[in-house]
């Protein structure tokens, strides 16, 4: 048997000796090497389903597809049914040119094959595709203290921070292998010390800040460190209701994409901050004050990557990460009200609200609300807006969004929510 620094159980040693087959041997070897790279001393059991970040059957991923076939051929699957990030294309709900469709079909030509592989390895169901799998409609809802093995950055930071579960920002495919083994390396956010905060972030804005802009400021400042955030309870209250969870979902996604935050604590709000307060701060922590001026500076620093700065937007994407049911209702109501105030019947800019398939299905049960949304010219889509923009034909278009995550990973132009409302109703006004 090879020598490893990690403390292994007899069962784990037997697996590495090939006693459960070559495929399982490779699974554990990969996990052990990954863990040792981060200083993990042992493996610990996973308490809940994994969430897989790799959702796309992209050209050039042959090594992944071959590995999946080997795992399936060995009769392996995850201990519990899992969820996966959003599908990369949605021709039915997003208007697509023939040129764009051709590129997408070529770019994701293995999508059907890959989804079949995912199903054989334990995918929860055919609609279990969302970056926000922790929503009750999707069903991969962790509990506080549970050890997870997730990789999607916006899901990891929500599970760690808002729920109080424990997951590292794992590499794609590693989370799948951990799900098959039922164990994950113990390091980082799985340890008490690894959940301490190195930054005190004091929010001192005159009003409730935009969550995506606030998250961007925090992420760019603290990078991968954990912040302890004060002041938000005074602006938003301290109840973890749907409105608060939506705010923290979007804020967290921006901290994770504009930086690499995997955990934050909100004073008097998130579970560990309620229990431990400022004892979560390490000795010698740094302080960052966010006021109106700081947010204005951050907003002004964003580059605009459009070829024509004054172009009329082709699309507006709202929902990166995926919207909650509460957010769909809020956007539907706000768009309808703004249209009526403007004396208009439909939005001027093609607008797509992105959400999990199960969340969309739930919203559609409300026939009156769904009819309002469709009559106003708005579409619902299950796709990932960033994956949509990975198509070079699509990225040529001037796209606007309220998502700082989408802005970071694409050529989309970021606007605050109220600005987005004004643009989609009245057309270009910048």
TrEMBL record:
The segment(s) forming the Phosphomevalonate dehydratase large subunit-like domain are 6-411
InterPro entries referenced in this protein's UniProt entry, alphabetically: PMDh-L-like_dom
Origin, by domain of life?
Answer: Bacteria
* UniProt keyword Acyltransferase present: no
Stored Pfam families: AcnX (PF04412)
- Which key words tag this protein in UniProt? Iron, Lyase
Write out the GO MF terms. lyase activity
Q: By what name is this protein known? A: DUF521 domain-containing protein
